[in-house]
């Protein structure tokens, strides 16, 4: 049974890395002794090793070992044999470029579709969508393709932010950007606020966490969806 | 003599479209009776016609006619014969995709290098840089190439925003994103705050406008540069 958790963010304001998700993760990774961590998104340019170490420390507190995908001589075999996956946040362009260049996107997708648990945060959640066209990240590298795993039949806008009514800035709001997306695409977009996540258990897809989500469908006014609701467009 | 004006934004808070730039534009387009407007970035999904009309109304106040590039049967010829150019803001991915797909990027670059005045705002300024890798926009379409005109030997981050010390949001700051860019690229980046622009007169490249700019060079701490300074890395 497909078992996927796609979180808006790894970290809530004033909290430790992954702290708000830890109560979920023991159950999510039940029976898993070691996960493969995909560090390719490199937030702030952190090294693969340092990023993996940060993740290792947190997962140690729930008794799960962590091994970085970059440490395997044959990453495709590592994915084929993994008991569980976590892809951390950072730059989505970089993450997607690496997964395509190393020919790992499809292998990863197949393993997750077969029931191996997959946790993503931020960029790691974006790649659970149909494509990466709703990332907020800067295009610092040129991926060979924007297509991602399509574990869910929609895209995620991570770190979703409501327009700030007090802003004096002329940059586009998140809502305007997603509206521009829907001029050229009809993929639904889930605006996932920090503290929320998408849960997939087999065919059941729900929003979860502390905030309602904002749903954008092509040609329709966006609307709010309470946490716990089915995502069924 | 190369004559280029690349502005961070078209519009300042509480002002009309292009209002703060109008005092510059009469002199900038001196002797020009008609410009070609490039509406491809389509902010908020606005049509090419509506976007061109909005621009036409403003330029009428300084006695300059406007024709949308989309209205020419042969856009390459239109570019080859134009007296001046304005590329408006919107989505940089869309703008770059269109210019590459229509094979117009190189023609436009050559005309501007030969001295035809070029005004850009926001996305229209991004394409004056070496490539579009420092846009803030959402990748709603997949361009065949991120390379842009390279009218200046650096990239522009339009609508540059300082980190908000009161923010409780975990999305990356602009500074973090540009730092991530410099892990993989060594092109200098000018963080251009709203109200500021880059002016090119022949070989003289300066920042202008109401705000200092923030300069990001690979491997160095970012620094502030007063308006009026030479951009000479």
From TrEMBL, chains A, B:
It comes from the Bacteria. Its EC number is 3.4.13.21. It is an enzyme of class 3 (hydrolase). One of its GO terms (molecular function) is dipeptidase activity. Keywords: Dipeptidase, Hydrolase, Protease, Serine protease. The keyword Glycosyltransferase does not apply. SUPFAM superfamilies: Class I glutamine amidotransferase-like. The keyword 4Fe-4S does not apply. Belongs to the peptidase S51 family. This is Dipeptidase PepE. It comes from Pedobacter gandavensis. The lineage of its organism: Bacteria, Pseudomonadati, Bacteroidota, Sphingobacteriia, Sphingobacteriales.
């Amino acid at each position: 049974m497909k078992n996927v958790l796609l979180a808006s963010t790894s970290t809530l304001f004033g909290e430790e890395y992954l702290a708000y998700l830890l109560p979920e993760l023991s159950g999510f990774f039940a029976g898993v002794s070691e996960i493969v961590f995909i560090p390719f998104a490199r937030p702030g340019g952190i090294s693969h090793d340092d990023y993996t170490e940060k993740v290792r420390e947190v997962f140690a507190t729930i008794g799960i070992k962590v091994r970085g995908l970059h440490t395997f001589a044959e990453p495709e075999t590592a994915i084929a044999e993994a008991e569980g996956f976590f892809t951390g946040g950072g730059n989505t362009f970089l993450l997607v470029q690496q997964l395509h260049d190393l020919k790992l996107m499809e292998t990863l997708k197949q393993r997750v579709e077969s029931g191996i648990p997959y946790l993503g945060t931020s960029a790691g959640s974006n790649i659970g969508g149909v494509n990466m066209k709703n990332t907020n990240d800067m295009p610092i590298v040129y991926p060979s393709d924007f297509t991602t795993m399509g574990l869910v039949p929609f895209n995620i806008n991570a770190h979703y932010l409501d327009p700030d009514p007090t802003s004096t800035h002329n940059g586009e709001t998140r809502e305007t950007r997603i509206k521009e997306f829907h001029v050229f695409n009809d993929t639904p977009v889930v605006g996932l606020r920090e503290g929320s996540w998408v849960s997939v258990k087999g065919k059941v897809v729900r929003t979860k966490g502390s905030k309602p989500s904002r749903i954008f469908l092509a040609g329709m006014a966006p609307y709010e969806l309470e946490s716990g609701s089915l995502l069924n467009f």
